[in-house]
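Q: What structure does this chain adopt?
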Amino acid sequence: MTLKNTHQVTLKLNNEQVSNAKQRLIDEFTTLLTADIPEPLTWKYSMTDLMEITHIVFLSDMLVEDDGSNCTFLSLVRSACKRFGLHMPSNPSSYVNRAQNRKNIRSRSFFDHYCWQLYEQKIDYPLCLSLHLSPTLCTTRLPVTDE
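A:
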């Protein structure tokens, strides 16, 4: 996989790095969804970005409902929107489709940007940092990678 950021820097990732980055994003996002934080967090990216991440987490089957069944995409969307104080979109899948169809350099996927921050900028917790959260929130549940 070759990744370009908006500054025209190319980042070449092997399959293991892509897989590790995806797992890091899933872990970081599920930490944010399940952490005991009293107030809603502020989401500073687009709804498309939020739905892209939520869909990645949904496909991972990492979260379960209270009854032990796998979370549905809609239940994860509800949880994410509630956590970030956002209105739930009427058709979350359309945002996922929009995210998957991003093609040009100015409109990269959130995951591409996340990989660039993780590997090129060497930021351990890109999502927590970008939301201006204390790294201790993320470090309590996530191991730091050696990449």
